[in-house]
Amino acid sequence: MSAATSSPTPGLTLTRPDDWHLHLRDSAALAAVIGHTARQFARAIVMPNLKPPITTTALARAYRERILAARPAGSDFEPLMTLYLTDNTSADEIHRAREAGVVAVKYYPAGATTNSDAGVTDLAKTHKVLEAMQREGLPLLVHGEVTDAEVDLFDREAVFIDRQLIPLRRDLPELKIVFEHITTREGAQYVLAADARIAATVTPQHLLYNRNAIFTGGLRPHFYCLPVLKAEVHRQALVTAATSGSPKFFLGTDSAPHAVHLKEHASGHAGCYTAFSALELYAEAFEAAGALDKLEGFASFHGADFYGLPRNTGTVSLRREAWTLPESLPFGDAALKPLRAGETLAWRLLD
Ligand code: DOR
Ligand code: ZN
Q1: Is 254 marked active-site?
Q2: Are strands 104-107 and 177-179 parallel, antiparallel or unpaired?
Q3: 201, 225, 337, 339: residue to mutate for ligand 1 pocket, most atoms within 8 A of CB
Q4: Is the peptide bond before 257 cis (omega within 30 degrees of 0)?
């Protein structure tokens, strides 16, 4: 383990980390954001919720090529590709995906979030595919929220555990699952208590903020993401889980760029853009918990170990130095506001 010491400390050096949950988009948006992630992370798991979604191995291969071509000159950043599960995904497709190096399949309940319309309407329809994934050892990444309009928005993750996750794991106990971007005490406790085949990613915003952030001094759309920020007890439970040293919790930013005019809108899009300063935000959360010594495991080891991929070599360094995030970043013809735009951060990633 490299020199991760507890506060106060002038600096922090970590084995190169990875982002196990990322939205990179395509075309001009991809070109605008990829450099931010490539500067911070060695690898990232790239979400398949494009329009149209990445539902086949052929589409994943082509998307991977576009990502590689969009990297800044000299970057060795490696995108790890996923497939978007639909009611019609075939078991053969799972085999092809595995052979082609696709690392996981993403389950969006239809209608749960951005570009999830083609998602799964009923998990029972995908049973054969999930069996094939269990056989092939391909993990299922779940957006863990029910879409039932009767269920309160803030309860949708906890209800998902009872209605979908527990039955799914009973049916397919060997299937590897990542419960993505957990936001609740129930989510953290469920994963911690379960066997080693299920793990969870945690975003920086869910470690740093509770739902008050969305409503402080007016409606603040840049804090709106899905699953939505929860109450303080949940934030605290997530901090406890992420900083516990348990290998079941690892870094996944869920950084999700949307043009500023679509965030600041009557029906603003869900997603926080954190890729620009992801490690700085996580360092702030871990420092506040007095757990900077646990950041390296969370950011650099646990995810690779869960996916059965080699840990990275090389290091990144952060310095305790105040700096101000830009108000906005270029985003094709539009602009992109990073989370904490115009505010000061305590940590800075060194180039
Ligand atoms: O806030 C979110 N934004 N949650 C998601 O699940 C999707 C993401 C996006 O693609 O914008
Ligand atoms: Zn996401």
Answers
A1: yes
A2: unpaired
A3: 225
A4: no
Distance CA 208, CA 218 (A): 19
Beta bridge partners of 97: none
Q: Is 277 helix (H, G, I), strand (E, B) or coil?
A: helix
Residues 66-92: pLDDT tens digits?
Answer: 999 999 999 999 999 999 999 999 999
pTM of this structure: 0.96
pLDDT in tens, 296-334: 999 999 999 999 999 999 999 999 999 999 999 999 999
Residue with tokens 């969370």: 298
Residue 349 phi/psi, 5-degree rounding, is -75, 130
Of residues 245, 230, 124, the one with CA closest to residue 184? 230
Q: Residues enclosing ligand 1, CB less than 6 A? A: 23, 49, 113-114, 143, 225-226, 256, 270-271
Residue of 152, 254, 305, 333 marked catalytic: 254
CB of 224 closer than 8 Å to CB of 215: no
Tell me the CA–centroid distance for residue 1 and ligand 2, in Å.
30
Question: Which two three-digit tokens encode residue 164?
Answer: 């979908």
**E-only strand ranges, 139-241:** 140-142, 177-179, 198-202
Tell me if residue 320 falls in helix, strand or coil.
strand
Beta bridge partners of 324: 344
Buried b (16+ CB within 10 A) or exposed e, 94-107: bebbbeeebbbbbb
Residue ranges in the chain assigned as alpha helix (H): 27-40, 57-70, 91-100, 127-136, 156-160, 166-171, 185-193, 204-208, 232-242, 260-263, 278-288, 295-296, 302-307
The single-letter code of the amino acid at 246 is S
Contact 142, 165 (CB under 8 A): yes
245 phi-psi bin (left φ>0, alpha ψ -120 to 50, beta other): left
Beta bridge partners of 179: 142, 200
Written as one letter, the residue type at 95 is H
Structure tokens at 313: 């070599």
Quote the tokens at residue 225.
């993401």
Residue 73 CB partners (closer than 8 Å, separation 6+): none
10 Å Cβ neighbour count for 83? 28
